Amino acid sequence: MNFDQLIFDLKGLPATTAAHEITMFERLDVNRYENVSSKMLEFLFQIDEQHEIGNLALLALLEEAKIQYEHMPKGTEVLSEVHAKSSQHDNLGFIDLVVHTSEFSLIIENKVRHILNNPIDVYQLFVKQQYTKKNSYSGKNHFILMAIDKPKKIPKNYVFVSHESFCLNLKSKLEEFFQNTEKNRYSYFIEDYIKAMIKMSNTQINHDKKSFFKLVTEHYNEIDEIQTRKKNVFDVTKSYLTEIIEESNYKEDFFQNVKIKEMILFLGNIKEVFYIQILLKKY
């Protein structure tokens, strides 16, 4: 057994952090539902909504998708569950989100935990036919796939943006924004949503977990031996303390030692603690 290597590897583990604060989205168990996420994104991308953060969410998405624009977006029309249909296809589908500005349109497929099996070809044909200058749109259409994890294959013409990267970008913008602006009642819901989505992504947490399990796997025998020795030491100590307590020639001054008191409280159950207190009063 290599206890020296175990100690060395233990020092290399990521520092432990405080317990994760459970968000309201998590408590209600709605953070994993795509329709809830889509509704929240619809709210965020609408520039003139009551969240009063303007175009910050839209700018965060544009930056993460690396979409160039000439003018700062000042107004949006946001649609959800857009029915995409085509005479050339039998199957139909619903586009999760469409964001129209005067300069471009964003066609967003939002995924949280589900597999991407949507009729993407129908979506693209629908957009090509409908969102044109002839129909009073910009004609510049960008397709975005938002998801927790990056799929092995990204659909043609789509750009992938993770929920984590979007939320981290928006979080940074909001922190700067709220330095000079008072939060309103919706601000806390937005922050709660951001925390929940980042937690779902938890790439860093997963990395830390892998490091931990790697250590346990490689040093299982050493850890098991330490646990066995620890139990033996505690059992022996407990038996010695029992003998000490039962010997009448040991007086109260023996128990004034802080470490002895801590050991008694740690090793004994409630009844034993009461028993010790009774003995102390007796002697």
Automatic annotation (TrEMBL):
Pfam families membership: PDDEXK_4 (PF14281)
InterPro entries: PDDEXK_4
Name of this chain's protein: PD-(D/E)XK nuclease family protein
Organism per entry: Vitreoscilla stercoraria
